[in-house]
């Protein structure tokens, strides 16, 4: 069956630190996905559009809404314009690729903050998780799977992708926000061996997006 | 052995929502602990002082320090005065009682933010966790144990205390920041049955604080 609907995927760079490596890693992940799509088109003839969201640039303050997000149905239900804009942006997307660092064995506060601002805008949508860190960020990945899949009733894939720094020099570059020499996809990079994991997980997300798009038509 | 050092315990109310029940629940927990201390003094003759910290009133912005907290040794190493003040406040405390809600099966962003601002100020210090929520906040408790015990190398107790709302009316009061009718300790409240859990867990924290104080003398 051919699905005419265009499916929109948000690639969310979760790091909001002043000095951060998140945006370049998110760009690298998106590059791998778009390259893979040229070789393996999404099932059901789904047309895909990508939108990168750098939470550091978005600049949401620490949650300042008086209401409970789960009780609010539309962007107009929020008090602040920054929340209404964020609500509209997330509501317009059909699925998500979360790319994040791990802070103290958990989700970075800036990412958790952006997530907790909303509820119905996330609910039921499929997502994949890519973490990075000295040990791959496995604790942040598990916490994020639980929050998004359990707390927000989104559709989690079984596996997450965890990018482990190959050495202290890479950690130092990440900490300083220096170039990691990642793009373009398909060429030698520090995480060359994880490119196939990202592509494989992406294809599962694409299948989940296609299934949802088919049901919606 | 008598320990002359006064041990200082921070009771941290983790909620930073505009409308929040956290401070009244934290006050109730502190009341139970202080009442229990009159009946069961801390081991080793430890003298105790308590300081309540309401993170909502503290008003830290979303992490805006350029450095990695683990690499910073003193308050003067931070860029912003709000971080230096927070560093001094936490460094002066010997142990902690974390009282927090659960947001979307995870740690509230405001609490994670306040935690992630620092590193060496937390390290090695004992803590206990009290969560509250519709299902007691067990996911937030587990995430917090992992972040504080694993990520920050603090001393976790084995058990956490999870306060489950007895009904929707209590949830609604919490959501609206209305009085829950909690204090004073020892009288009938919605969580009357959990008072002994709080006191029991507190006695374990007091023993841990006494052991640390003894080693330090």
Gyration radius of chain A (Cα, Å) is 17 Å
Rounded to the nearest angstrom, the distance between the terminal CA atoms of chain A is: 11 Å
Oligomer: homodimer
Q: List the domain count of chain A as a whole number.
A: 1
Count of extended strands of chain A: 6
Structural class based on helices, strands and sheet pairing of chain A = alpha/beta
Largest sheet of chain A: 6 strands, parallel
What pattern of helices and strands is seen along the backbone of chain A?
A: EHEHHEHEHEEHH
- Residues in helices of chain A, as a percent range: 25-40%
Instruction: Identify the CATH architecture of chain A.
Output: 3-Layer(aba) Sandwich
Globally, the shape of chain A reads: globular
Number of helices of chain A: 7
Organism (chains A, B): Sporothrix schenckii (strain ATCC 58251 / de Perez 2211183) (Rose-picker's disease fungus)
Domain NADPH-dependent FMN reductase-like (chains A, B): 8-163
Protein name (chains A, B): NADPH-dependent FMN reductase-like domain-containing protein
Pfam family, one (chains A, B): FMN_red
In short:
With 217 residues, the first copy, chain A, is α/β, with parallel strands linked by helices. Chain A is built from seven helices and six strands; from the N terminus they run βαβααβαβαββαα. Chain A has one domain: 3-Layer(aba) Sandwich (Rossmann fold), CATH 3.40.50.360.
Notable traits:
homodimer, 217 residues
Fold and architecture overview:
The structure is a homodimer of 217-residue chains. Chain A is of the alpha/beta class and 217 residues long. Chain A has a single domain, classed as Flavodoxin domain (Rossmann fold, 3-Layer(aba) Sandwich). Helices cover 40% and strands 17% of the residues of chain A. The first copy, chain A, has seven helices and six strands. The first copy, chain A, has helices at residues 22-39, 55-58, 81-91, 109-116, 138-151, 168-176, 195-216; strands at residues 6-13, 47-54, 95-101, 126-133, 155-156, 161-164. In chain A, strands 1, 2, 3, 4, 5 and 6 form a six-stranded parallel β-sheet that branches. In chain A, strand 4 (126-133), helix 5 and strand 5 form a beta-alpha-beta unit. In chain A, helix 1 packs across helix 7. The longest helix of chain A is centred in the C-terminal third of the chain and has 22 residues, at 195-216. The radius of gyration of chain A is 17 Å and the shape is globular. The termini of chain A are close together. Chains A and B meet through helix 4 and helix 5 of A and helix 4 and helix 5 of B.
């Amino acid at each position: 069956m051919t699905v005419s609907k265009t499916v929109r995927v948000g690639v969310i760079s979760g790091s909001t630190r002043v000095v951060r490596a998140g945006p370049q890693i998110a760009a690298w992940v998106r590059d791998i996905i778009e390259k893979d799509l040229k070789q393996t088109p999404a099932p059901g003839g789904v047309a895909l559009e990508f939108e990168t969201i750098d939470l550091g640039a978005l600049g949401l303050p620490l949650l300042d809404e008086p209401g409970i997000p789960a009780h609010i149905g539309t962007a107009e239900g929020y008090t602040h314009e920054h929340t209404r804009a964020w609500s509209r942006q997330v509501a317009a997307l059909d699925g998500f690729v979360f790319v994040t660092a791990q802070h103290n064995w958990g989700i970075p506060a800036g990412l958790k903050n952006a997530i907790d601002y909303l509820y119905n805008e996330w609910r039921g949508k499929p997502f994949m998780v890519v973490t990075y860190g000295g040990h791959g960020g496995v604790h942040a990945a598990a916490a994020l799977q639980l929050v998004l899949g359990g707390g927000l009733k989104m559709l989690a894939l079984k596996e997450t992708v965890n990018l482990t720094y190959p050495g202290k020099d890479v950690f130092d570059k990440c900490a300083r926000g220096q170039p990691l020499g990642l793009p373009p996809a398909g060429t030698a990079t520090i995480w060359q061996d994880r490119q196939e994991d990202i592509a494989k997980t992406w294809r599962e997300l694409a299948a989940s997006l296609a299934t949802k798009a088919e049901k919606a038509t």
